[in-house]
## 1
Amino acid sequence: MTAQQDLIHFEDMSPGTEYPLGPKQVTAEEIVEFAREYDPQPMHLDASAGEATILGGLAASGWHSCAMMMRMMTDSYLLRAAAEGAPGLDYVKWKRPVLAGDVLSGETRVLDRRQSKSRPAIGIVNLRHELRNQRGEAVLVSENPVMMRLRAKQEH
């Protein structure tokens, strides 16, 4: 576990700060496994069914793409952040299908931030996340606020 003083706090998340996401190779097995459990539509379960759609192949569920992004965010910065959770998503857009064999990467960028009026020890940081495939094509774009602790004032 990261020591409290080493954590990323509100003050560290200035507008423009970026955190890299990925890379993450997407396998056919994980697409099917996720789909069986959470989104059992044919295009997520069978390559032939996916090829018969506008998706063009075995495609990850949009929610699977979000889950992969969440894992990349966790690995990149959330496990070392003084995060207090998120009140929701402003939006998520699935720009292109994520297909078996794709390699996803991208970044999270701090858009802006403000200190909470009702909770002075917390700040609200607005983030934009973008994932691209190995061809550099955007596959997922999302924005959401997250609640981050401010650093405790040093006692003298």
## 2
Amino acid sequence: MMEWLTQHVLEKYNFWIAMLIIIIGLTATVVKENLLKKLIGLSIFQTAMFLWYVSLGDVGRNILTTWGLKTGTPPILWEQAAEKGYIYVNPLPNVLMLTGIVVSAATTAVALAIVIRIYQKYGTIEEDEIIEKEKEFEREGVM
């Protein structure tokens, strides 16, 4: 039992932490009524996805093979390192996440600009109040 716990739970602590942070961010995005809090939750969610994806690059311990997944090999690996069982990191997930971080920052900036524009039009960033004001505008014929 302890061996199973060590192999399937404790060795994958980074995955469990990433999943916990993903759940926190997704919950904040869905549950909160304040648009700014939703954006903060979305940012937390994106950051947790980066953590999870970069964790997949940890090839040396063969974490993924315990789940039945194949692991890639880096383009340069000398035989002595492989024989000694060195832990190495696949650089591809790190490179891909750099692009993801740039896209995330741009998306967050655009979303903040939209929230500012919503505040200028409705005077609030609370979702239920915006919906009520939008219904008022429709009744009055204001665009």
